[in-house]
Amino acid sequence: MINKCPVLNTPTDWEETPEAHVFISDLPGLKKEEVNVEVDDGRVLKICGERKVEKDDKNDKWHRVERCRGKFHRSFRLPENAKTDEVRASMENGVLVVTVPKQEVKKPEKKVIEIEEIKG
Fold first, then answer.
1. Could you tell me if residue 18 is left (phi over 0), alpha (psi between -120 and 50 degrees) or otherwise beta?
2. Quick one: pLDDT at residue 81?
3. Measured on CA atoms in the order 54, 32, 14, 80, is the torsion positive or negative?
């Protein structure tokens, strides 16, 4: 069964602008302290965290529990032009924005190979 919880699925948009790759994740109800953003050596951006179960009074009676709780984890392989040492992240109103600046990737130079004539 697919988990339809928006926090645990972490819906994320990936936009590429001329200057950067921008990741926008909806994390309603979470604080920045509950979210972790990192880039590993293999150029993989990781967004993870956890919405913990709230402590409740044992005398309370719940009629419905619909909000999601638990851990989430998303990974994105960054392209070669990503400046992984300059990643920035910000969070406001439950929306995480991760900006990965781009660098110019040098295209391989064309080298014309002279065709030799074989004398025989």
1. alpha
2. 93
3. negative
Calpha distance 99→33 (Å, rounded): 18
Which residue shows structure tokens 């929306």?
A: 95
Which amino acid is it at 107? K
From CA 72, how far away is CA 96, in angstroms rounded?
14
Taking the C-alpha atoms of residue 12 and residue 35, their distance in angstroms, rounded to an integer, is: 14
Structure tokens at 5: 């919880």
> pLDDT of 52-99, one tens digit each?
877 777 788 888 877 778 888 999 999 999 999 999 999 999 999 999
| 48 touches 73 (CB < 8 A) | yes
